[in-house]
Amino acid sequence: GEAYTLRYIPAREDLNPISVFRDPKHLQRVAVEQCPEGAVLVIDSRQNARAASAGSILVTRLMVRGVSGIVTDGGFRDSAEIADLDFSSFHNRPSAPTNLTLHQAIAINDPIGCGDVAVFPGDIILGDDDGVMVIPAHLADEVANECLEMTMYEEFVMESVQAGTPIIGLYPMVSDDAKAKFEKWKEKKE
User: Fold this and answer.
1) What residues in the chain have per-residue pLDDT under 70?
2) What pTM was estimated for this model as a whole?
3) What pLDDT shows up at residue 24?
4) Long-range Cβ pairs for the range 109-117 (8 Å, 24+)
5) Do 41 and 62 meet the contact criterion of CB atoms below 8 Å apart?
6) Degrees (nearest 5) of the Cα angle 141, 42, 127?
7) What pLDDT does residue 177 have?
8) pLDDT of residue 101
9) Going by DSSP bridges, is the β-strand pair 75-76/52-54 parallel, antiparallel, or unpaired?
10) Which of 23, 127, 180, 185 gives a 20 to 30 Å CA spacing to 75?
11) What would the DSSP string read from start to end of 97-113?
12) 115 — alpha (psi -120 to 50), left (phi > 0) or beta?
C-alpha cells in the first residue's frame, strides 16, 4: 500500500505524561484514525525498540479500518497477538514499555526515516517474510515490471536447476545461451 507516515522524536517527561492520551488530537491516535484504507502506516521510531511504537489494540484498529499494514523500525507491544492477526506488520523486535516512555509523536504524513530509509507519503510499501521495501511512487510501475521479469527468470532457473542444468552462466544470467533459452521458455508460458 501507499505510505502514510508517523514520526516520533525522543520523549520529554514534561510533554509526555500518560495524560496526553486524553487529548483527542494526540498524533499517534490521530494517525491510527486517519490512515487511509489500503495504506500502510509507517512509523519512524528512530530505530529505538526499547519502547513500543504501538500495540495490539492500535494495530487491530488499523486492521478493522481497512489499512493494509503497519511498519516500524521500533518495537511492538503484544507482538505475538499482532503476529496472529490477519494483518501485515513488521517491527524491529517485541517491546513492552508504552511508547510514551521514549517516543513523542510529532508529525503525521511528512517525510520520515524508517530503518535508515527515506519514506515519503505515497511511496509504495511492499513487504514479505524477508523484509520491507520502499518504492518511490513514480518508479512503481518500472520496478513492478522488473520484478515480474526477475520472478519469471527465477522460475525458469529453478526448473532448469531441478532438471540438472549447472548454474554457471545461468544464474545470474550472463550467457547468451541462457538468455535465448529463457526467451523460448517465456514464449511457451504465454
Assistant:
1) none
2) 0.88
3) 86
4) 109/4, 109/5, 110/5, 110/7, 111/5, 112/5, 112/6, 112/7, 112/42, 112/43, 112/44, 113/44, 114/5, 114/42, 114/43, 114/44, 114/45, 114/71, 114/72, 114/73, 115/47, 115/73, 116/47, 116/73
5) yes
6) 50
7) 92
8) 79
9) parallel
10) 23
11) S-GGGTEEEEEESS-EE
12) left
What is the residue type of 124? I
- CATH number (3.40.50.150, 3.40.309.10, 3.10.450.50, 3.50.30.40) of 3-135 reads 3.50.30.40
Helical segments of the chain, H only: 27-34, 56-64, 79-84, 140-162, 176-189
Q: Where are the domains of the chain?
A: 3-135, 142-189
Write out pLDDT tens, residues 16-25.
778 788 888 9
Per-state percent for the chain, helix, strand, coil, to nearest 5: 35, 25, 35
